[in-house]
Amino acid sequence: MEASGMTLDELKQVTIDYYVNLQRIKKADTGNNPELEYQLRVFKNKLSALGIPAEEYEM
To answer: How many CB atoms lie within 10 A of CB 38?
Structure first.
């Protein structure tokens, strides 16, 4: 896992942080944003692939 210079734990933390940031944007967004919804789905799948339940980080 260190081919990119990150450990698995670092990769997990970066992915969690990014997902949480997307959640904050979604909460502040008052309109329909298909790209935001797509990015949330992508990162939710990435968290799942890393064995992290995304539901724990949803607002």
So the answer is: 10
CA–CA gap between residue 53 and residue 12 (Å, rounded): 11
Query: What distance in Å separates the CA atoms of residue 34 and residue 19, rounded to the nearest whole number?
Result: 16
Residues 6+ apart with CB under 8 A from 23: 40, 57, 58, 59
57 Cβ partners below 8 Å, 6+ apart? 16, 19, 20, 23, 47
Q: pLDDT, tens digit, for every residue of 36-53? A: 999 999 999 999 999 999
